[in-house]
Design goal:
alpha/beta, seven-stranded parallel sheet, 261 residues, Rossmann fold, 9 strands, globular, single chain, 8 helices
Length: 261
């Protein structure tokens, strides 16, 4: 049981689950967190993972007490993680003119931002005391520029980038690393309903392999795939009128209950 330990939220599907599989392949012990804990436990059994090396924790990252308790239990049962990956997140289209969509914004920020900080919270002090550990925030290239109909998600992921940058400064010289990963398009349930083209689309497994290497290499910031990083930087350089014309006819992220068109 001397193998390193990784704590991953959002592990019941998508990026989180693919990262769990990649870390398991590398021989790590796993602390896996999801609201759908029964579904996650079934996946663990289906993968044939050693029960002594894996613990599943039921928690909702939007519930501060819930995710803090999961972190406390992880330390108690498995020890202090070497890596914590905050990958739980949601992506829902919104229209500011529609009253109920303000609730979508509130929910998105609660999960994608407050939930991320709450995921790190139980571990930061102990990692500083140990003078070792890695905190990984999953952002998105959607953080680079705001996309029509995607205000909640873009705002939340821009906040992830800024928050992780702040936390990296706070942890400087403490032995604790903070890594910001910005996925481009990855084939997951979050992107399955996107009604627009998704250049450089990766499978969740391809993304997990590249993210695993980036985290292990000591990178502080990485766009995956790198091609999307180039595209994102070019988009940032576009003058606003040109950017607005370029995306004027782009499909919008479906709102809750809408069908992609």
């Amino acid at each position: 049981m001397n193998a390193p330990l990784v704590f991953i939220t959002g592990a019941s599907s998508g990026i989180g689950q693919a990262l769990a599989r990649r870390y398991a392949q590398a021989g790590w012990r796993l602390a896996l967190v999801a609201r759908r804990a029964d579904e996650l436990q079934a996946w663990v059994l289906a993968q044939g993972l050693d029960a002594e090396r894996v613990q599943v924790y039921r928690a909702d990252v939007a519930d501060l007490e819930s995710i803090a308790e999961a972190g406390r239990l992880c330390i108690e049962r498995q020890g202090l993680p070497d890596v914590v990956v905050a990958s739980a997140g949601i992506s829902i289209g919104m229209d500011t003119a529609i009253r109920e969509d303000l609730g979508v914004l509130q929910e998105t920020l609660a999960i994608n931002n407050v939930g991320l900080a709450a995921t790190f919270h139980p571990f930061v002090g102990a990692m500083r005391a140990r003078r070792a550990g890695t905190l990984v925030g999953i952002a998105s290239v959607a953080a680079i520029r705001g996309l029509p109909g995607h205000g909640a998600y873009c705002a939340s992921k821009a906040a992830v980038v800024a928050y992780c940058e702040s936390l990296r400064g706070e942890c400087r010289d403490s032995g604790v690393r903070v890594v910001t990963i910005l996925p481009g398009y990855v084939a997951t349930p979050l992107t399955a309903r996107n009604p627009y083209s998704m250049p450089f689309l990766l499978s969740a497994e391809q993304f997990a392999e590249r993210a695993f290497r980036a985290i292990s290499s000591g990178a502080s910031y990485r766009v995956i795939p790198w091609q999307m990083g180039v595209v994102a930087k070019l988009m940032r350089l576009l003058p606003n009128p040109l950017f607005d014309r370029l995306f004027a006819g782009r499909g919008r992220k479906p709102r809750r209950g809408e069908t992609a068109s």
